[in-house]
Amino acid sequence: MALRDSPFGELKVPLALTAAVALLVAVVVAVALLLSDRRETFQTEAYGVTRQVGDAVAVPVSGAIAAPGRWGGVGLENLRGYFFAVSENRRLKADLKEARQWRDVAIALRDTNERYKTLLGLKTEPPIPMVAARTVTDSRGPFANTRLANAGKEKGVKAGNPVMSENGLVGRIIGVTTGASRILLLTDVASRTPVMIDRTNARAILTGDGGPNPKLDYLRGQNPVKDGDRVLTSGDGGVLPRGLPVGTAVKGLDGRWRVVLASDSAPIDFVRILLFQDFSQLANAKELDQMTTPPPSSGSASIGLVNPPPAAPPPATPAPTVKPAALVAKPPSPSPKPAIASSGTKPAATGPRLATTRPAPARKPVTPGAAPVAQAPIAAPPAPVDAEIPH
Amino acid sequence: MSLSAARPLDPWRWLGLTSLQCVILTLLFGAPMRVFGLQLPEPVFAMIPAFAWAVIRPSIIAPFALLFIGAFTDIFWGSPVGLWSLSLLVAYGTVLIMRNMLVGQSRPMMWAWFAVACAIAELAGFLFTRLDAQASPSLVAVFWQFLATILLYPFAHRLIDRFEDADVRFR
Q: Is B64 part of any domain?
């Protein structure tokens, strides 16, 4: 039936009115979209299929678009290297001379550190596996500061993984799909990162605001920070490892403490995604749930024993003269406090050790259950057999 | 009103093609490039159609096209989905209401009105982000984006010039 013949054929609606209705409907849809968005959560499902598909498509397209710029940059760098080879050589020689001195210091400190670890039976954090990726897009507006990296699920990347450039922390992963992952930069308005001031150990929350220098919020204490102080991740909350370099503190024009990001000193083209899982994720919850309680017959003698030796038969009559404290195994070394105090300085930030080799691309994602065994490539320090650190 | 004098616009030409151009330009400027150590600006290319479409004539498809461009921008830039859709629609609606006052003004005046429309969109984005993230975006960063966006007016002017007289009903 033609429109002319239909009962609605003569119905005339002003275009301005229908346009207004269309605008209203579009606004309602946009509000619904905005209210349903939860991009900054750690839940993988919250990222949404639309975003995942968008990212998966954007990575190859943007990679192709960015390629000429990348090639141009490499060409320019080669040209500069050719023309400034002599001055570069002089600078590198000076750097090498300084680095040799630092190498000697580092070797001595490493040796001292290993001895302390052995004496204390200290369990250090396991090395963190990494994935290298290239960033292909960069949004740098006031309302969103994110990047797309060309490594995704297939390489074991998960939401929440920290991302670093060669100079410092860049941000964390907020969404992953096959072949792509979205990095929320430290400068994004939704970014909150627990940090500490290296000099004073003062804690703060690094809050992005869309500008190049994020703010240091919730600083406590009197004069906890001064110009030029190094800012590191504190590891509080377990989302990021402790000791990753973030930047240096500066006083902003608005009178607030801000951070000049270390990662800003060079273009962020290649990044390292740390496949970090905090201790709470590594713990085997099932095993902990199945822990058996000590038998009631051991009485007061077993107080303080972490793992009572099963082979030892319980005495027929508990000796009343044996004090429980004598049964608590102690480390043979002096207590940790004098050892730290003797150094005369505050304890250095124990940065995580980053694995130097890149995992194979086909590496399966580490499941929380299997992680403790799979992610311990180094042997634990040779602690005394009966040593247990009382918690 | 007789339709004999009207020459209906081809939606593909004034809506579809412009949307596609905005998407491509947004993709191009999303490349991670630095020139002399400085990052490229990040203008909101979708402000060109948001202003020009409202000036040319009221339309049923235009708000949905803006909704689509805004959603694409949000997904590509990683901002909350709906943020730029809503901000662009607020600016579009404001210009549509003021359309009778804007049409026929000189180029510098239209540029000034374009700046007002951009300011409305940025202000809307600022407020929605503040509500969504419970934090204030940097006003300096907002200003830089505003500045980069108002420089795009010549493209909006070209679009208006090309299609303003296409439909005599709305002259």
A: yes
